[in-house]
Amino acid sequence: MSARTSTPHEIVERALELSTADGCVVIADEQSSANLRWAGNALTTNGVTRGRRLTVVATVDGGRGTASGVVSRSAVTADELEPLVRAAEAAARGAGPAEDAQPLVTGVPLSPDFTDGPGETTSAVFAEFAPALGEAFARARAGGRELYGFAHHELVTSYLGTSTGLRLRHDQPNGTLELNAKSPDRARSAWAGRATRDFKDVDPAALDAELAVRLGWAERRVELPAGRYETLLPPTAVADLLIYQYWSASGRDAVEGRTVFSQPGGGTRLGDRLAELPLTLRSDPSEPGLESAPFVLAHSSGGDESVFDNGLPIGATEWIREGELSRLTTTRHSAALTGLPVSPTVDNLILDGGDDRSLAEMVASTERGLLLTCLWYIREVDPATLLLTGLTRDGVYLVENGEVTGEVNNFRFNESPVGLLRRATEAGRTEKTLPREWGDWFTRAAMPALRVPDFNMSSVSQGV
């Protein structure tokens, strides 16, 4: 194997051959990305990158249990492969027994494309999007708006091999678009974002038209005090809140009494009604347009992730079923500790069960309330209630008698997503959305807009 000609699957096979540990897991991630950036209605930069990261997990059996060692490095050459394997083995031999130790996964069918070369993205992914963006620049300039933002597309091909015979592969495309429109004096700002697999379903003209309407709303300014307001949360804001709830839904933590999903006096809240509406929060690796890895890819252990679970098949999971809590996340180890079903995390999240009305239709049936654009700087205040705080951003609008009548000041909020689900009185149409706060880590989401009768705007914020 040479450094220049070795393919990812060959690197995985060679690393497994070099291993002298009792068990070994090797993950090769081949990544390529393309991006565009623009400011003031003009492209500023673009580029394409490629990279490779290799992760080796060595397991060593001992009288007190099985230890694990994990080492990851980028741009590993053929000459560096054996030192990497030896470093993982040394880390395992120097560690104590791993709490999450389990037998390595077996019996998963071979991916038929395991020996194929990695997928690759290039600037060609923007072949249709870039000209349409240029036309949006011209319309924005004529309309007295300035557009800022970026588009990013990434394709990661992951190869997973284990000493127990697993040979699995997954191609994960991921695209994001963030677009800001500003008035020439920068006093007014509006944001829109989209998640996409290939940029073929992104329409810059439609986004610019949406932002133009929002900048028009902002021409009238209304100052409001802090307080509780009927509030329409758009899908992006709902996604940011429920993704944090999802990350906090550890079965082990709930059993140990540390989370909002813990039952007072012991146990979990599984079976409790969390929403009066018949909402279902679910994940599915085969969800159309939101496809994600159908098996565990764990580069480290911690929380609800275990390197011993690498290759474990992942299926569709309902976390909340028609308003009732039905699953919490577990590894094989934490499931055995708690008696809960094995429920690995899945890299997408969908909330459905609403009435299929659009956000515009929900606005039209609002007597008086607030319409948000997005949330940011979300932080946890109290894990026992999952109370979160954060800020509104890029437009909070006043709705009166079914129409948006102006922009109001921004706010700091204090809310729990669990509490919001319980108090929500309407859910609209589920649609793919890009989380604003967590978009760098979690992009595959589909959410409805939610109507909350008493959203807690705890203080006024001076942010734009």
Automatic annotation (TrEMBL):
Source organism superkingdom: Bacteria
A Pfam family the protein falls into: PmbA_TldD_3rd
InterPro entries named in the record: Metalloprtase-TldD/E_C, TldD/PmbA_N, TldD/PmbA_sf
Chain ranges of the Metalloprotease TldD/E C-terminal domain: 227-458
Gene3D superfamilies given in the database record: PmbA/TldD superfamily
Protein name per its UniProtKB record: Metallopeptidase TldD-related protein
Organism: Streptomyces doudnae
